[in-house]
Amino acid sequence: MTDAMFRVVVVGDGMVGSRFVADLLASVGPGRDCRARAVHVTVLGDEGYEPYNRVLLSEVVAGRADIGALTLPSADDERVEVHRGAPAIAIDRASRTVLTSDGAFPYDAVVLATGSAARIPDLPGLRAGPGGSLPAGVHALRTLDDAREIVAATANARRAVVIGAGVLGLEVACGLARRGLAVTVVHGGASPMDRQLGPDAGLAALRTLAGLGITVRTGTRTREVVVRGVGDGGAVVSGLVLVADGGRAPGAPGAGGTGGPPAADPTGPADEIPADLLVLACGTVPEATLARTAGLTVDRGVVVGQGLASPDDPDVYAIGDCAQPPEGGTGLIAQGWEQSRRLAARLALRVSLAGPGDAPGRPAHDPEGPRTRPRVRFVDEDRPSMALRIALGVERSAWGPPGRGPREMRPTGVHGSQEPQVAAARDAPRGGGARSSAGEGPAGELPPAPPTDVVRLKAAGLDVVAMGVCGSRRPHDPTHRTLRLTDPDAGRHVEVVVAGGFLVGATVVGAAQVGADLAATYTRRVPVPADPAHLLLRPVAQAAAPASDPTRMPDRTTVCSCNGVSKGDIVASWREGARSTTDIARATRATTGCGGCKDVVCGLADWLRRADPEQEGPAPAHPTAPEPAGAPR
Q: In DSSP terms, which residues pair with 164 in a beta bridge?
């Protein structure tokens, strides 16, 4: 390794860390003019596995996904050196090295992607195992090993209790119920998922959970975990002692928390319930120990600025669950991946601005600049159905007045190439700023990033999607217009919040297709109809209009927003031999994020199977029809 090498050490090989490595290599990889310095990336992974989709661990518990299907693509590049099962011990900022038990790794930039750990509440009996460990039968769900242990425990367990009715808690509860266990969920809040669901939506979710045979004890806290066998063959969980939260009746408004000791009256009336299996879904704690011991500012997580660098050291960055950016952390993978993209562009600029032997450049502005977007035109007679327009992310309000034809459309869900901004910065004179694209504003300014706060529940039998302004704790805003359709007996609730002609929030229970359409409308900033009631009435009252043939979908249309996978990417993977959704996911990463694009990917695979069966060589991406006029090339 020469002195000209720009050395990046990535601490963490999970969903965000592995994505950052891929993003960075793409930013400075083949085809880029990286004339200043070569890049070498060292990845330090705590676990001994290849990166995997932690979001889908609950699908493993439910028996709907195999562990092998969770594996994510890992870097196969000579510039990357991966050390798995090698947790970082310390960051020596004076010598600019990261220390592990295997040795010291020098860096020009270190990226912390250490994620978070499961929060273990301080409850009597919960540390009764050997050396203060959890008793047998008690598990959190944060790692691949956790999922394996829970699945193994279901072979002999009959009664399971889940502490916490947040997203993970409900996913685990539904998964265990699917395996035939009697499941009770204990939650201190007034309704399940109370951060995302208001009272009416919570009631609809409760009706559905009851139909799945799941008992939900709201407004209730755990006072004690009952164990047997302490001091003999080891402690084994046998039940829980529950009390009303602060003396309130279960389900009473104002109850809060997910599983800690009661806020008041711990000696009040108690109720003991049996359990062979106890799963803790009490939230997470950012893994910030490494940053704290290195003398970096840590609050709840590693404090970083807009550029994702620590205010104490511009060469130390943090992304994902371990980071605490100015806007706060959502705990959702979409935010971590967005941070990965931004940081990769920033470090690519550092590499490009620093010549061999120079100090690495530290741009004061975000290097990404305005993102270019492909454009789509539809002539009036070819105007696609509403379902397809939402799927394509086309702004419906762009249709011009009658007689004047359509204006140009912008698919708002497509992240354009980052190349022009990095190249512009590279070509700028030393000491000068990056050139901006014409009409796009000053260099370094970004259009609003797609929202990263869409919550999708991946539960067997319960469909919930929430985004933006939602939940019982949302502040009152007189500019917000809220419309609701509530049908608790059917376990269905749809609520939308509109402001300024756009969807700013939505809550959907028991209506998966409506939730998918609203999520597309929200993330792609599609203007809502003049009468926003159509967001509720049309999808529910009418069957969805059949979408146009996929041959009319431009190749650059984004199918998987989480991973930036286009229709063209999926067609290319098909030509290279991918013949199933699993094969396509392995080749492109589509469906490996939140899983919300799975139906679209399946539909494209079915279309390819009919249109291009067992092809021997390259074939047109659109076998039966040309692209619409004006489609991007």
A: none
Distance CA(430)–CA(432), nearest Å, equals 5
Exposure class string for 521-555: b at 16+ Cβ within 10 A, else e: bbbbbbebeeebeebbeebeeeeeeebbebbbbbb
Higher pLDDT, residue 419 or 11: 11
- Residue 595: DSSP 8-state: S
Residue pair 44/98 in contact by the 8 Å Cβ criterion: yes
Residue with tokens 């009770």: 184
Sort 395 into a burial class: Cβ within 10 Å, 0-12 / 13-18 / 19+. Answer: middle
Single-letter amino acid code for the residue at 287: E
CA atoms within 13 A on the CB side of 221: 25
Report the percent of the chain where pLDDT is more than 90.
48
Contact 225, 499 (CB under 8 A): no
pTM attached to this predicted model:
0.75
Q: Is 257 left (phi over 0), alpha (psi -120 to 50) or beta?
A: left
What is the pLDDT at residue 583? 82
Beta strands at 88-92 and 558-560: parallel, antiparallel or unpaired: unpaired
Where helices occur in 240-385 by DSSP H, the ranges are 289-293, 333-353
DSSP type of residue 61: H
Classify burial at 255, counting beta carbons within 10 Å of its beta carbon; exposed 0-12, middle 13-18, buried 19 or more. buried
What pLDDT, in 10s, does the model give residues 282-313?
Answer: 999 999 999 999 999 999 999 999 999 999 99
The residue with tokens 């004047």 is: 404
Per DSSP bridges, beta strands 103-106 and 97-100 are antiparallel
Nearest to 223 by CA among 167, 135, 163, 283: 163
The DSSP output letter for 96 is T
Radius of gyration of the CA atoms of the chain, in A: 26
- Which of 112, 96, 28, 104 minimizes the C-alpha distance to 359? 96
Backbone angles phi, psi at 105, to 5 degrees: -120, 115
- DSSP for 146-173, please give it: HHHHHHHHTTT--EEEEE--SHHHHHHH
Helix (H), strand (E) at residue 219: none
Amino acid at 516: A
